[in-house]
Each structure stands twice: as structure tokens, then as C-alpha cells.
Design goal:
Layout lengths: L5 E5 L15 E6 L7 E13 L5 E2 L18 E12 L10 E15 L2 E14 L2 E16 L7 H5 E10 L3 E2 L11 E2 L2 E10 L1 H4 L8
Parallel strand pairs: 1-12
Antiparallel strand pairs: 1-2, 2-3, 3-4, 3-5, 5-6, 6-7, 7-8, 8-9, 9-12, 10-11
Amino acid sequence: MTKVRLLLVVWLCTLVPAAARADDGGWYEWLQKMSGPTLMGFGSDIHLVCIDKDARAFNCEKFWVGRRNVDFDRIRHQIDFRFTVFTNVDDSVRAPRSIWALKLMGMYHYRITPQFDIAEGIGFLPVFGDGVQSTSRGVVTPISIGYFPFKNGGAWAKSFFGRFEENYLTGRLSGAELGNPQSTFSTGGEWRFTVILGFDFRRGLQRGPARP
């Protein structure tokens, strides 16, 4: 029977836009016992392009500019680049060494309504560190469901969303690769269920229609 473990992702964003970082896609992510050590890290989404119902592309990213009012309700399709940097927070491999991982994903979102979207994605997860054999695992997200529960209220309420994802990690991972050659631990491909709680202030801070 396939093991399914819960990943809790807390999406932390800031209300203050800046040209040097995305103010609508940062998060704090916890990978609980991902076939070895517990990994925690920080990441962000970069919205590469958005497309409206008339197949017209427009800019919906704040990473490259200062304050910009994005017409969130206009978005029908959205393509993102998602990245997270992880490090270990426990001694699961029984060795005082650092383990690092990068989660790099391309994501496609289809917005059914302003409050509900479905998505899918693909990417990879390089793992490396002190005394750790560098390796990489593929990541496939066949289904991701997002929901904004609050239509009205302040910026925090309207920006809040929940997301539920099913992820498949490809490839093999062993205790030796994690720096513990005495370990008999070994795993192949595995499914991981993800629950995401976060904020997208493009929705909470919009003040009216935005220009493409």
C-alpha cells in the first residue's frame, strides 16, 4: 500500500512590494520525513505569464516591478516557476552534517472561477550537502486544487487560500546517499500529499482593473 504523508506548507508573504523579491508568492515549507530527514525551507513563485479568457497574455507578476495593481479576476491561465530551498532540521541520518535540497517546478494553473483553480506541474529535487552523495529526484504534480474561501473582507482575508496537491517523487533514495552507509534505508518512487495554506496579495490588494 502506498504510503501517504502530510506535508504542511505555510505560505508567508509581505504586504510591502519590492523590486528585488516577489511580494505575492513567498512561503515557508515543511517536508515531514521525506524518506529520511525532515526538511524546512523558504521559496517563492514567479508568475511567468497570465492569459485571460480571450487568450490575451498579460503581466501578472510583481517581482520585476514596484507596486503594480494586478487584475486578479482577469486571470484564466497562469504559468509559474516555483522554487524552494530546504535544509534539514533534525538528525534523521544520525550524523552532524547539513543536508540541502532545491525544489524547482514549472506549474500551470487553470482558474475556473476567481476563487477556485486546478493546476499541474513537473520539476526536480536536487539533494546535496556535507558528506552527502549528490542526487536528484523528479517531482510530478498531476493534480493541485486551490481555493480562496473569502470573497469579501480585508486584504488578509481575501488573499488567504488553501491548496491541496498530490506529488510523486521519482527515482531511488538510500541511507548511503544521505551520508549514513550503515543504514539499510532505501526507497523508490513515492507519493506525497501536500496541504498548502497561504496568501496571494495580488487578489487582496487589487483596487480595480489593471492594464495589461
